[in-house]
Amino acid sequence: MDHTVAVKLLGVRGTVPVHGADFARFGGATSCVLVRAGGEGLILDAGTGLQGRAFRDFFPGSAFTMLITHSHVDHLMGFPIFSPFFDPAVRCGVYLKTREGRTGREQLEALMAPPLWPIRTDCLKAAVDIYDVPAAFSVGPVEVETMEACHPGGCTIYKIICGGISVVYATDYEPESDSPDDFCAFAQGCTLLLLDAQYTRSEYERNRGFGHSTIPRSAAIARRCGAEQTLLIHHDPTRTDRQLLELEAAVHAQYPNVRFGRGGEEVLL
Ligand SMILES: [Zn+2]
Ligand SMILES: [Zn+2]
């Protein structure tokens, strides 16, 4: 079995998609990350970064799995138009936790129904099975562990483990300190950490309780976790490439294993 784990970032922008020359380098698409591991294709979140063609280039198989953190629209806007869902040969397991008394299926049906959207989930041609999110489960040879993030309405943090390699995807997470014991234990020693860092410290003072971390806090957490490499994600939609490069250089000087994620980049582990 091929133990290589490949990770491709298709969307690293937080909250709302942006476009234009100022955002070309880091990309303006919202949350979506692909993981290929142990012959399985996994999709983390279905923001505007989710594109059927990019996914097909990355994973040509007909069965795959989608792990959704929560149903805020910046994490779901790509779901209704994901082209493999209109291919009858495709089978896809979708994991989305029951929240506010609504199952994952009910959350997706609320998004895909008139007047918000013209096509309902039962019009999808693929076999799409929707599951609640257990604490731990497996997808073929891939082990998945989860923990709940501090975020308005809740959000699932996923750890994907295959052949001794682990990838932690922690977006939309507002840690209570620079060293949250529960998260640092969960992510301890991971190979790749993808971690929310929407705000600067001063922005955070105005946005406390919105459910996001800061660049310095997330860098400190990455070090405490002993993550081999960390990509900070969920960039604020107002942040230009120039600003991101400056902030990245400052944090990278202090934390050599920490960089900012860029839309379109691929990491082999
Ligand atoms: Zn978000
Ligand atoms: Zn959110």
Largest sheet properties: 7 strands, mixed
Overall morphology: globular
The helix content is: 10-25%
Q: Specify the CATH architecture.
A: 4-Layer Sandwich
Structural class: alpha/beta
Low-pLDDT parts are none
Annotation, overall tally of beta strands:
14
List the domain count as a whole number: 1
Give the helices and strands, then pairings.
Elements: E1 6-11, E2 32-37, E3 40-44, H1 52-58, E4 63-67, E5 91-95, H2 104-111, E6 127-131, E7 136-139, E8 142-149, E9 155-162, E10 165-170, H3 181-187, E11 192-196, H4 201-207, H5 215-225, E12 229-233, H6 241-254, E13 258-260, E14 266-268
Parallel strand pairs: 3-4, 4-5, 5-6, 10-11, 11-12, 12-13
Antiparallel strand pairs: 1-2, 1-14, 2-3, 7-8, 8-9, 9-10
Helix pairs in contact: 3-5
The structure holds zinc ion (2 copies).
Give a verbal description of the structure.
By secondary structure, the protein is an alpha/beta fold. It has a single domain, classed as Metallo-beta-lactamase, Chain A, CATH 3.60.15.10. It has 6 helices and 14 strands. The strands form 2 sheets. The chain has a 7-stranded mixed sheet, covered by helices on one side. A 7-stranded mixed sheet has the order 7-8-9-10-11-12-13. The longest helix is centred in the last third of the chain and has 14 residues, at 241-254. The relative contact order is 0.18.
